[in-house]
Design brief:
Two copies of one chain form a homodimer.
Chain A (H helix, E strand, L loop, with lengths): L10 H14 L8 E2 L2 H8 L3 H13 L3 E4 L3 E4 L5 H4 L5 E2 L9 E11 L2 H7 L6 E11 L2 E11 L16 H8 L3 E12 L2 H7 L6 E11 L4 E9 L6 E6 L1
Antiparallel strand pairs in A: 1-3, 2-3, 4-11, 5-6, 6-7, 7-10, 8-9, 9-10
Helix pairs in contact in A: 1-3, 2-3
Chain B binds a DNA duplex through α3.
Chain lengths: ~240, ~240
DNA sequence: AAGTGGTCTAGACCACTCA
DNA sequence: GAGTGGTCTAGACCACTTG
């Protein structure tokens, strides 16, 4: 009659979140084996079926891998096969191309209107602004403006983050990343882009604009990129 | 119980496929209610848990919707919220933009090398080739070359398919569509594109190249498009 | 042989919808 | 109140991996 249910989420969801929290906290390191289903069920005081459902969810969220006869393993978010998640540029044999990152500038400033909108920040929050260039086999193919919520990445400027992408940053701060969304359009290169990429002024480039959320839905990165796909490099989209 | 596990796939997968087949065959029309879990389990001679797992799969594949207290419903693949699946162009308020399709040419021919590769056809298979233009609010923004395996769409030229997209075609032929993949790049408009789109010769456009598979993994459509995103139109990509 | 995850079963109870 | 899907439990057995 009264809906307690609105306040108590299903047990298997609670268990999933508890496990995710412990993974993010580093309780089980990437690559490590977790206890078996039965033991975990015992630890949490739930039935094996409920624990299984929680683990199924975590596997579908790519936090775990399970292999029959072996065990349950914590996935490494920075492993090669997971890097592709936010990287839609592909090379000749379909390999993801992240490029070598070079951070040209990094500043901590008060968030301005567009940043507050895209990162869902309140009036007086601060952001880190980065200017970066990416090179593949020595050739710069993309420049990007990145904004990161200062609250999520405390002390970022003191760290040496020059070559680090969002994946490694999140890893270093114990943040689990979730969904992202990117828009692709076409336009004329900005002045600093055509400068850094050594293309003709205002030559056509791909504009990329993406926001990546944390696993629990808070915006973690806003990136605007200008990209000149070199030969055999293309942007790829899977439709499930 | 139904089959020996040693020689067959898991029971819940068999049940899922049997249900999918009956849905594709039109046994339950889009929007119709299906029998409840218990009855279905009885029909198939499996336990309720196994039937539930099969239904869960079908729901994750977007063939079904289930609502507590209401029942299990067959989804309509051409419904507004499902059209977006293969349509990554969005308008101002995030609405999918399919545009009005106008088929300019349609031919049945022997598949050539690139078509055989992309559509995984054998040496002597045939394809339908279509040339189309898409317009939004009266303005053409995209032209496309489409290739369809003749084996999947028998008698296509005799039908009036001028305004039909792959979604409606598949529906008409009782084909369930599955995953797709699209690549996006940048280039100079071809002659017929700049002609149809009334842009300057060789002006920059988005090149779109996609293949859509059927639910069971056979290529169903290869499309190459040249697109001039007008106004607030943009290409969007979700990263899960 | 021992241990793991994967499949399958059977049933109780809860939450939601609608007549 | 009757019917539906959603949650949770408890346990048997299978398939795979490793020592």
């Amino acid at each position: 009659m009264l809906q307690e249910r609105l306040f108590t989420r299903p047990l298997y969801v609670q268990v999933r979140d508890a496990l995710a929290k412990r993974i993010a906290a580093g309780e089980w390191k990437p690559g490590a084996v977790m206890p078996n289903e039965g033991d975990l069920a015992g630890q949490f005081g739930v039935s094996p079926g409920t624990m299984r459902k929680a683990l199924d969810l975590l596997e579908s969220e790519r936090l775990l891998t399970r292999r029959q006869g072996r065990g349950t393993f914590v996935k490494d978010p920075t492993a090669e096969d997971r890097v592709v998640r936010y990287c839609n540029l592909r090379g000749p044999r379909g390999k993801a191309i992240r490029g070598d990152i070079n951070t040209l500038e990094i500043n901590e400033v008060a968030a301005e209107e567009p940043e507050r909108l895209r990162l869902q920040l309140t009036q007086d929050e601060r952001v880190y602004r980065l200017k970066r260039a990416r090179a593949y086999e020595g050739v710069a193919f993309m420049v990007e403006d990145v904004a990161l919520p200062a609250a999520l990445f405390p002390g970022l400027v003191e760290r040496n983050v020059s070559p680090l992408a969002i994946l490694e940053l999140a890893q270093a701060y114990g943040i689990l990343l979730g969904k992202g969304e990117e828009t692709v359009s076409i336009g004329a290169a900005s002045v600093w882009a055509s400068d850094a990429l050594r293309t003709a002024k205002a030559s056509p480039v791909l504009f990329l604009d993406r926001v990546i959320l944390t696993r629990d839905g808070r915006p973690a990165e806003w990136r605007r990129g200008e990209c000149v796909p070199t030969r055999a490099m293309h942007y790829i989209v899977g439709m499930r």
